[in-house]
Amino acid sequence: MPDAVDSFPVTERNKLRRKHERGRYDKATVYDILDSAMLCHIAYVIDGQPYCTPTAFWREGDHLYWHGSSASRMVRQQAAGLPVCLTVSHMDAIVLARCGFNHSVNYRSVMAFGTAFKVEDPAEKLKLMDGFIDRFFPGRSKEIRQPTPQEFKATTLVGMVMENASGKIRSLGVHDDEEDYQVPAWTELMPVHTVLGAPVPCERQLPGLARPEGLAGYREGARLDEVFAEAYRKHYGE
Amino acid sequence: MPDAVDSFPVTERNKLRRKHERGRYDKATVYDILDSAMLCHIAYVIDGQPYCTPTAFWREGDHLYWHGSSASRMVRQQAAGLPVCLTVSHMDAIVLARCGFNHSVNYRSVMAFGTAFKVEDPAEKLKLMDGFIDRFFPGRSKEIRQPTPQEFKATTLVGMVMENASGKIRSLGVHDDEEDYQVPAWTELMPVHTVLGAPVPCERQLPGLARPEGLAGYREGARLDEVFAEAYRKHYGE
Q1: Which chain A residues contact residue B192 at CB under 8 A?
Q2: Residue A197 located in a structural domain
Q3: Above pLDDT 90, what percent of chain A?
Q4: Which residues of chain B from 9 to 38 reach within 8 Å of chain A, CB to CB?
Q5: pLDDT by residue (tens digit) across A117-159?
Q6: pLDDT confidence of residue B62
Q7: Domain count, chain A
Q8: How far is the C-alpha of B169 from the C-alpha of A202, rounded, in Å?
Q9: DSSP B25-58
Q10: A85 vs B17, B50, B173: nearest CB
């Protein structure tokens, strides 16, 4: 039954009702969209009020992790076991059209659903904190100073199992209703990319240090989604 | 009392508890972060389950608007008066450090809180739908075909008043604890920009059409946040 293993179950929560041809439930696609990002937005509820908080995250298997100050309200509340929805979006293009209705955006997104928990075991927490660094910058956790006991205590690591998730992809060119191609409105697709600028080395860099191999992908002009996905494969293996 | 007019009230909901030196409650800063974006993430709750949905949005005064299919679950539920949190984030840099704890990201973000409502009045709705196009592409609503009655009906326009909101900005270079500058780990700041690629004109462009002045800012290599903010000023005036 490869489908049950390789895909998320489709339930009321993650089923795409609109534009269902854009839906993706296979883990390969969902994971690829997640692993191409550092920033996610997490929805959660405190006293009936929804919050949408941007934060850095990463994936290990079917778990997603993020962290925060142990004093943070978000982290304290989530760690107590809140249901969460963690969403990642990549905007790939703006697509004009000859009527408002056919204007669109190309994108890749994932909504992942689960229940947040706090990582309590110190050994597991330390390993995961190293994984957070190494997943983006392969090998870096071995190059930097390890956390002090105060830093370790001041940081809460929160995780969730992806109980279910759905990906959504739109990747289309300009499309108009047949009769609208006679409307004299200039129409185009505008690609959108998030890229790296030229790195700015620390002014207090120790003399003689070389830029490590683990940062090689982070070069000026590189697409950040591709760099993150490549770093992920480098750290975890294909 | 310029403060009461020019700033959002600080309440339990929008007060920054951590890193409060990064907080911004003045409308000029909050609006600038919002007007530099097309994509937001909206948190809302259906049957106790939080959802975080990415969507296009825009601002008019202290209102935020977005839209969706009238058949969409999100839009139908929100339109009935759900509390929402609309969040916008710009990632500006990845900042390495000599320990995990001082690794960071530079960003500008806004969390805006309010209650969603459906725009019912047809004249207001049509004006706002034109505004949605023109806010991003000044003058474009006059160049394209107007919505058909079916399109108009199939689209639900949802709005919220920003009851309160908070901005958050981190814009710092590499920073390490003084004793860590001796750690032999290469350290740098990596700027991140979302930019436009070369526009791809529609293959069925009518002959003799020129690219309109309203799209002038959308040129290859331009920073999308700056283009959106410039288009906003062009449409609404400074």
Answers
A1: 194-197, 224
A2: no
A3: 88
A4: 13, 17-18, 38
A5: 999 999 999 999 999 999 999 999 999 999 999 999 999 999 9
A6: 96
A7: 1
A8: 21
A9: -BHHHHHHHHHT-SEEEEEEEETTEEEEEEEEEE
A10: B50
Residue A60, in any domain of the structure:
yes
Which residues of chain A neighbour B182 with C-beta distances below 8 Å? 206
Answer whether B101 sits within 8 Å of A155, measured CB to CB.
yes
Would residue B216 count as lying in a domain? no
User: What is the nearest CA distance from B109 to chain A, expressed in angstroms?
Assistant: 8
Residue with tokens 């207001």: B124
Domain with A94 in it: what CATH number? Answer: 2.30.110.10
* CB pair distance less than 8 Å for A71 and B17: yes
Range of the domain at A127: 2-192
d(CA B219, CA A195) in angstroms, rounded, equals: 16
Is residue B223 in a domain? no
Contact A34, A110 (CB under 8 A): yes
Task: Tell me which of A19-33, A87-101, B98-112, B172-186 is least confident.
Answer: A19-33
Give yes or no for A101 touching B (CB within 8 A). Answer: yes
Residues pairing with A113 in the sheet: A85, A164
Inter-chain contact B44–A44, Cβ cutoff 8 Å?
Answer: no
Nearest-10 crossing angle of helices B27-35, B224-236? 110
Q: pLDDT tens-digit profile of B75-100?
A: 999 999 999 999 999 999 999 999 99
Q: Any CB–CB contact under 8 A between B131 and chain A?
A: no
